[in-house]
Design a protein that fits this description.
Helices cover 64% and strands 9% of the residues. It has nine helices and six strands. It has a two-stranded antiparallel ribbon with strand order 1-2. The longest helix has 24 residues. The structure holds zinc ion (ZN). The site of zinc ion (ZN) has 5 residues, from α3 and α6. The site of zinc ion has 5 residues, from α3 and α6.
């Protein structure tokens, strides 16, 4: 999954847990995956039309996308967040932990069986990527639902508070369409580098959205 991951983040952040913190959390496993690929710790092959939705053969990613490690990273992120951001408290830590783990659950729905349960264990994945209309619909549906919830709980501070969420949505939508309908990346390293850059830009835009809106409560 790609932009759909941001749906759960937008749905439950915007208070003590900032929207952009949620944006980092839901992609945390992929944010680790990219340098792991660049360092040769995990592996991906670019195979044109490997699934109906994209070109990734994600055959080796036990450190970031196995179930046991997804749980591990979720706990680490949640505990670290609670320690770093004291004002968010235990609830903030739990929200971050749950968001990190949500990445694995939504990947489970989309991926071919490439998510190991543990190191060397059986691999799972319900392969919704094989149905492009359904997978694209799900990505957009989740994102739109989450953003709608976020917008309903917050109000714009001036005109920028309206422009920022529209810009964020437009960029996410463009990235998703490019991912689904664009050419395959030139290499695994290129794919990892673009992922890091994209996640960074999306988080910056989310910070802009949060800075220009305020909670209604
Ligand atoms: Zn992932």
């Amino acid at each position: 999954m790609f932009i759909g991951h941001y749906g759960p983040a937008a749905a439950i952040t915007g208070g003590k847990v900032k929207l952009w913190h949620g944006f980092i959390a839901v992609q945390f496993l992929d944010i680790l995956w990219a340098p792991f690929v660049l360092l040769g710790i995990e592996h991906v092959r670019i195979v044109e039309n490997f699934t109906a939705s994209n070109h990734f053969d994600l055959y080796d990613m036990p450190y970031t996308h196995s179930l046991v490690m997804a749980i591990f990273w979720s706990v680490v992120a949640g505990v670290a967040y609670k320690m770093i951001r004291k004002s968010a408290g235990v609830t903030g830590g739990i929200i971050i932990g749950v968001l990190v783990f949500s990445h694995w659950l939504f990947d489970l729905a989309m991926h071919k069986p490439d998510l190991a349960l543990w190191f060397g264990g059986p691999k799972v994945g319900f392969a919704l990527w094989e149905n492009r209309p359904l997978s694209v619909g799900l990505e957009f549906g989740l994102l739109i639902l989450g953003l709608a919830l976020y917008l309903s709980r917050t109000r714009a501070r001036g005109v920028m508070g309206k422009i920022a969420p529209v810009s964020l949505f437009a960029l996410l939508a463009a990235a998703q369409i490019f991912g689904n309908f664009g050419p395959p990346p030139e290499s695994a390293d290129m794919a990892a580098q673009s992922a890091i850059i994209a996640y960074f830009i999306f988080a910056v835009l989310a910070a802009w959205v949060d800075a220009t809106r305020q909670s209604k409560s």
